[in-house]
C-alpha cells in the first residue's frame, strides 16, 4: 500500500510546485494601462476655457486598482509622481453656427456687416446675392440693442477693462471682475476685437466658444476665435455694421 501512495503523493507535490508560482504571479501581475484618446477633430477643442464634463475611469478598472495590494517598491515612487490630469470634454458647437456661404437678398451693399440678434448670425455681405455667415453670441435679455455704426478700431489680442457699471453689477452677484486684464487666451475678448463707433460695444472673440449661438453677452457680439480672425482679415476700419 505504501509503495502505491508515495508515487502519487510525489506527483501531487511536483504538480503543485509547478502551478503555484505561476498562479501567484498572475494574480499580482501589473495590468496594462487604460488609454483614452480625446477627439481633437473640432478646432475649438484647442482653445482654452472651462466647461462641465469629465471623463472618469471605468468602474471595473477602479475596483481592480483598489483590490490590488500595495507593493513596497512602488510606495516611494507613487508619492513623488504628480496626479494624473483629467481630460475635460467641452460641448460641441451646433454646425449651423460654423462659417458658410449663403444666399443673401438684403439691400446692404457688399462689404457691409449685418448682425441678426434674433437668429444669432453675422453676415458679411458679398457680391452676386451672397454673404459669408458666422454664428455669434449676442446680448442676453435686458442687454439687446440695435443700430448702425462704423468700425473705428481693430486690435489683435485686445486687453480688457470692464466698464464700472459691469464691475458693480457683477459684484452684486458675488462675482468680482478685474479692473484690467491683458490680452491672451484667458481674456474674454479673445483673439481679435472690432470696435463699433464711440460705443463700448465690440465684435470680438471669446474664451468660451461653446456659448456661440446664444444670448449670452452684455451687448457685445461674440464670435469663435477662428471666426473673428477670419472676419478681421476681411474688413477694414470704416466698414459699416448694422445690428438688427
CATH top level of the largest domain is Mainly Beta
The stretches of 5 or more residues where confidence is low (pLDDT under 50) are 1-29, 34-62, 72-80
Q: Counting H and I runs of at least 4 residues, what is the number of helices? A: 5
Ends: how far apart? Answer: 106 Å
Helix/strand order: HHHEEEEEEHEEEEHE
Mean pLDDT: 77
Quantity of strands, as a count = 11
CATH topology category name of the largest domain: L,D-transpeptidase catalytic domain-like
Fraction in beta strands: 15-25%
Shape: globular
| Largest sheet: number of strands, sense, barrel closure | 9 strands, mixed
The helical percent reads 25-40%
Question: What are the defining features of this structure?
Answer:
disordered N terminus; globular; 2 domains; about 240 residues; L,D-transpeptidase catalytic domain-like; nine-stranded mixed beta sheet; 11 strands; alpha/beta; single chain
Write a structural description.
By secondary structure, the chain is α/β, with parallel strands linked by helices. It has two domains: 2-80, no CATH class; 95-243, L,D-transpeptidase catalytic domain-like (Beta Barrel). It is 26% helix and 20% strand. The protein has five helices and eleven strands; from the N terminus they run αααββββββαββββαβ. The chain has helices at 2-27, 59-67, 72-80, 164-172, 225-234; strands at 100-103, 113-116, 121-125, 130-135, 138-139, 147-156, 192-196, 202-204, 215-217, 221-222, 240-243. It has a nine-stranded mixed sheet with strand order 1-4-3-2-11-6-7-8-10, with helices on one face. Strands 5-9 form a two-stranded parallel ribbon. β3 (121-125) and β4 form a beta hairpin. The N and C termini lie far apart (106 Å). The model is unreliable at 1-29, 34-62 and 72-80 (pLDDT under 50).
Amino acid at each position: 500500500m505504501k509503495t502505491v501512495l508515495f508515487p502519487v503523493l510525489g506527483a501531487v507535490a511536483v504538480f503543485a510546485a509547478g502551478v503555484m508560482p505561476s498562479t501567484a504571479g498572475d494574480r499580482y501581475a501589473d495590468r496594462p494601462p487604460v488609454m483614452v484618446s480625446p477627439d481633437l477633430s473640432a478646432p475649438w477643442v484647442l482653445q482654452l476655457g472651462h466647461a462641465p464634463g469629465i471623463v472618469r475611469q471605468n468602474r471595473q478598472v477602479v475596483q481592480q486598482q483598489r483590490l490590488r495590494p500595495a507593493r513596497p517598491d512602488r510606495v516611494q515612487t507613487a508619492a513623488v509622481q504628480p496626479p494624473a490630469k483629467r481630460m475635460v470634454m467641452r460641448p460641441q458647437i451646433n454646425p449651423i453656427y460654423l462659417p458658410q456661404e449663403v444666399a443673401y437678398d438684403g439691400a446692404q451693399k457688399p462689404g457691409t456687416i449685418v448682425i441678426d440678434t434674433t437668429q444669432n448670425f453675422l453676415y458679411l455681405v458679398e457680391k452676386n446675392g451672397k454673404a459669408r455667415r458666422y454664428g455669434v453670441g449676442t446680448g442676453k435679455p435686458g442687454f439687446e440693442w440695435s443700430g448702425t455704426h462704423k468700425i473705428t478700431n481693430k486690435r489683435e489680442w485686445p486687453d480688457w477693462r470692464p466698464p464700472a457699471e459691469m464691475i458693480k453689477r457683477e459684484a452684486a452677484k458675488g462675482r468680482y471682475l478685474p479692473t484690467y486684464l491683458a490680452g491672451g487666451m484667458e481674456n474674454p475678448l479673445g483673439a481679435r476685437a472690432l470696435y463699433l463707433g464711440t460705443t463700448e460695444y465690440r465684435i470680438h472673440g471669446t474664451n468660451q466658444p461653446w456659448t456661440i449661438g446664444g444670448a449670452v453677452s452684455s451687448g457685445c457680439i461674440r464670435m469663435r476665435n477662428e471666426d473673428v480672425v477670419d472676419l478681421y482679415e476681411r474688413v477694414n476700419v470704416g466698414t459699416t455694421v448694422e445690428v438688427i
